[in-house]
Structure formats: structure tokens, C-alpha cells
């Protein structure tokens, strides 16, 4: 990420500077020479990266859905699958990443398809655990669109399992949550078939 890709919001400069100061001290405690050429700007780069990776705290996913809510009599499944996401595990602050598959059956309202992906992004750009992330996406869509049902399936790789700990490189964690019409095993099976998972 270049320094130009993420702009610090007004009022965040002092926060970025404070975060950078803490990272500088961490680097010193790790035994690094923070004055050497390659590391002089690293604390601020990391601070900006952390603000970017946690920008979901400053965004309202419900507002995103309500801002593109349209009356439509369609009552069949709507699926947005293979939504790439990146998040930080709240236990070790290491990345976990993968794909989210989201489906809902409208009652009276639909939303812009890109808004579903935005909801995934907003919740993932916070310190997270995959289980909570799955539930938050489901609950947000249910509360703001009031559909007949919502289902969310997330498949992710966790660097806290791959880089450290048990160091299982090929492991994938799958979580799911659902409401309403998706309590029916037949409806869930249709969703899983449509996203190409069994």
C-alpha cells in the first residue's frame, strides 16, 4: 500500500502520530535500530496501515444498506458470492482473509448488490473473530432489509494458525449463520449448490 492510497481523515493525524510512537517503541523493544534508513518511516506507515485496516469502526453498514433500498416484489434468492475480505484477528492482530458468500430472500425490498460487499468490508475492517463477523453480516442485512431470510457462509485462512501456533498451512475455517427461510434444510442446500459448495 502506498502512502497515497489511504488518506488520514481530519482529526486522525494526532491519532496516527500516537500509534506511530507506540510502534516505534515496540520496534526498539524488539531490538531494532529505528533510526536506520529502512525503518525511519516504518512507524507512521504501520500506523496508517492500522487505521486503514480498522476503518470499519468509522462506518455504518446499516446506513449503506438503507441508502440503496428499493421496493421490489422479487421473492427468490439473491446471492452475492466470492466476496473477498481481509480482517485482523483480535487475539493476535494477525490477518485472516478469504471469501464471504451472502444470500437473502427479499420480502419487499432489495438493495444494491455492491452494498452487500460493502457490508462485508465494513465489518471485516475491524478487529474480529470469524464467528462474530459471520453473525454481524447476517444481522445487519436482516435488520435493515427485513427479508424472508439471510444466510452467510465465510471461508477463511488465519495467519495466526499458519505463521504461529499449530502452523497448519492448508487449514481453512468455515462458518455459517442464517435466519428465517434458511432454517429449511432444503433452502440452505439450494444456496450451497448455487455457491458451488456442498
Structure description:
Residues 20-195 form the GTP cyclohydrolase I domain. By secondary structure, the protein is an alpha+beta fold. It contains 7 helices and 7 strands; from the N terminus they run αααββββαβαβαβα. The radius of gyration is 20 Å and the shape is elongated. The two termini are 36 Å apart. The mean pLDDT is 94.
Cα radius of gyration in angstroms:
20 Å
- Amount of beta strand: 15-25%
The helix content, as a percent range, equals 25-40%
Number of distinct helices: 7
Low-confidence runs (pLDDT<50, min 5 residues)?
Answer: none
Instruction: Give the strand line-up of the largest sheet.
Output: 5-2-3-6-7
Mean pLDDT, to the nearest integer, reads 94
Biggest sheet details: 5 strands, mixed
Question: What structural category do the secondary elements indicate?
Answer: alpha+beta
Q: Give the topology string: H per helix, E per strand.
A: HHHEEEEHEHEHEH
Number of strands: 7
User: How far do the termini sit from each other?
Assistant: 36 Å
* Large-scale geometry: elongated
